[in-house]
Design brief:
Helices cover 49% and strands 19% of the residues. Helix 7 runs antiparallel to helix 8 and helix 8 crosses helix 12. A 5-stranded antiparallel sheet has the order 2-1-5-4-3. Strands 7-6-10-9-8 form a 5-stranded antiparallel sheet. Strands 12-14-15-17-16 form a 5-stranded mixed sheet, covered by helices on one side. Strand 16 and strand 17 form a beta hairpin. The protein starts with a helix and ends with a strand. It folds into 3 domains: 285 residues, Beta-Lactamase, CATH 3.30.450.20; 97 residues, no CATH class; 169 residues, 2-Layer Sandwich (Heat Shock Protein 90). The chain is elongated, with a radius of gyration of 51 Å. By secondary structure, the chain is of the alpha+beta class. The chain has 12 helices and 18 strands.
Length: 570
């Protein structure tokens, strides 16, 4: 096995290893992205659930406050009636009928309305005559009004009805003004009403909705847990800590190491002594997320298997592909070499023919000093042309240094006009010189060579006339199709002919080395040499052409720095 084959085989192994590493890195990168997305989505899912629960708590707060306001307005009306008729008989029929109508208007949340006199006995009641004959003077909601003359209205915690009709909240209003206490009016707000309301609103999005009195006593809950109604939970969150910091909030908690984690939202009602608490397990919140996470894990595992299979398949076929690429590359190299050799040999064949003819004349002709000198001069010019061709090749390869200095394009064009007119022959040559050009960086010899190349191309293309135009490039005055940066840094020369123009394909390839449309008569070095010259001095070349509309070549020369006086090789 040759050294080249050994190196190539080692290269294949290295490429296979690199491919496997790249596939692994790709999979790891995708896995990290998927993991980051899943973590972000988990956080967003919990946050979204918290926002939903907070919004639901606000809805429940608004509903509860409006309910209490409606009851309070009704109680205020009853107090006004009692003030206007202070001597009503106990359980007056007409007044009882009016109370019953008020209860019907407040259903389903108010079960009964009753009036307690200053001695604690019920004097008017919508349950009469089924009302138990008991005194309510020891009830805290009665005692609070009796002891505090400034207390106009209040809402109590949960009480069990003496009539055996379940738990209720006493919504009360004081009868009598100032120190004159004439009793209270009470509306029995059913705790069961809130449980029914919460059942309708939960809709599977919340596991638990509870209403607590501010002192921690449980008023109502969904799902219904009647054994806990009326019990105090003041020692638990949020009553123990959270309400002291903020009237509302959301947090995650777990009651023990083996209990499920829960998301808790609480909200203290504005204007009412109640706290709404909503609870949902994070397991239920993240159920859909877990499904997506499992699916993503399966997908990543399948992707790993797929990448492994693709890498293995690629490595098995790599040798055949490499051999095919080598054969194609060798063919391209041979074609390029033949093309390059053909172009250069064509030019040098012409020069050598001139030299050969001159030497033949010298060797075979009679001795004539004048004729010999002329023949030698022709041979020397041919050799000089060959030297210039070599210089052009070296310049194109950026190996020939240029003598660049600040110059005025108008002056250079005017000085070379005689040579250019002789070169173009019958083709008309016009110049439109700006007259106020800024000095630009240029190599005068290469500048003339570039002009010769462009004019010869126009002549060979069949143009009847060519216009050389100079101008200072600005944001407003610049080649229409050129979108380079900082146009004001350039001085522009346009060479525009009225020839047949180029197709889009030819225009795109016109600056490629050795590309020509002249067949065997062209070298393909004219426009590339111009392009290489401009790029070497920091300029640009822009080409615009359309079939039937001629060709315009724009040479963008960089402006010379201030006080640019001497030539600088680059």
């Amino acid at each position: 096995m040759s050294p080249f084959q050994v190196v190539r085989k080692a290269g294949r192994r290295s490429f296979g290893t690199a491919l496997a590493v790249a596939a692994t890195v790709l999979w790891l990168a995708m896995a990290l992205v998927v993991a980051a997305v899943l973590v972000s989505e988990r956080k967003e899912t919990l946050s979204r659930a918290g926002r939903y629960m907070s919004a639901l708590a606000m809805v429940l707060e608004a509903h509860t406050v409006r309910t209490l306001q409606a009851i309070d307005v009704t109680l205020a009306g009853i107090v006004d009636t009692l003030r206007l008729a202070p001597h009503l008989e106990t359980n007056d029929r007409q007044f009882q009928q009016a109370l019953t109508e008020r209860v019907l208007a407040l259903q389903p949340y108010v079960r009964a309305i009753f009036v307690i006199a200053e001695n604690g006995w019920i004097v008017h009641d919508t349950d009469y005559p089924a009302t138990p004959k008991v005194t309510l003077a020891d009830r805290p909601y009665f005692q609070s009004h009796l002891k505090d003359p400034a207390l106009v209205r209040s809402v109590s915690g949960p009480y069990s009805s003496l009539s055996g009709l379940g738990w209720f909240l006493a919504v009360t209003r004081r009868v009598g003004g100032g120190d004159e206490f004439q009793g209270i009016v009470v509306a029995a707000l059913q705790a069961q009403y809130f449980e029914a309301l919460y059942r309708k609103l939960a809709s599977g999005e919340v596991d638990l909705i509870s209403l607590f009195h501010r002192d921690g006593a449980l008023v109502a809950t969904y799902p219904d847990r009647p054994e806990f109604i009326g019990k105090s939970f003041s020692g638990f969150a949020p009553f123990s800590t959270d309400l002291r910091r903020s009237p509302s909030g959301t947090y995650r908690t777990s009651s023990g190491p083996f209990d499920y984690e829960r998301l808790v939202t609480y909200r203290e009602l504005d204007g009412a002594p109640f706290v709404i608490v909503l609870v949902r397990s994070t397991e239920a919140i993240l159920q859909t997320w877990r499904t997506v996470a499992v699916a993503a894990g399966v997908a990543m595992a399948l992707l790993a298997l797929l990448l492994a299979a693709l890498v293995a398949q690629f490595l098995r076929q790599q040798r055949l592909r490499e051999l095919a690429r080598e054969r194609a590359a060798q063919t391209e190299k041979l074609e390029a070499l033949a093309y390059l050799t053909g172009g250069i040999s064509h030019d040098f064949a012409n020069l050598l023919q001139v030299v050969s003819s001159s030497l033949q004349l010298i060797s075979t002709g009679p001795p004539d000093e004048r004729r010999t000198r002329e023949t030698v001069a022709v041979a020397e010019r041919a050799v000089a042309h060959g030297s210039r061709l070599i210089e052009r090749l070296l310049s194109f390869a950026r190996r020939q240094p240029l003598q660049v200095h600040g110059a005025n394009l108008d002056s250079l064009i005017s000085a070379a006009r005689g040579l250019l007119v002789q070169l173009v022959g019958p083709m008309e040559l016009k110049t439109e010189l700006a007259g106020d050009l800024a000095p630009c960086l240029v190599d005068e010899t290469e500048f003339e060579v570039a002009l010769v190349n462009l004019l010869v191309n126009a002549r060979d293309a069949g143009a009847q006339g060519v216009v050389l135009k100079t101008f200072n490039c600005t944001q407003e005055v610049r080649p229409a199709g050129w979108h380079g940066q900082r146009p004001s840094d350039y001085v522009c020369l346009s060479v525009q002919d009225d020839g047949p123009g180029m197709s889009e394909e030819v225009r795109r390839r016109a600056l490629e080395p050795y590309y020509t449309t002249k067949g065997m008569s062209g070298t393909g070095l004219g426009l590339p040499q111009v392009y290489g010259f401009l790029r070497q001095i920091g300029g640009e070349v822009h080409l615009e052409s359309q079939p039937g509309k001629g060709t315009a070549v724009f040479l963008m020369f960089p402006k010379a720095p201030a006080r640019e006086e001497q030539a600088v090789p680059i």
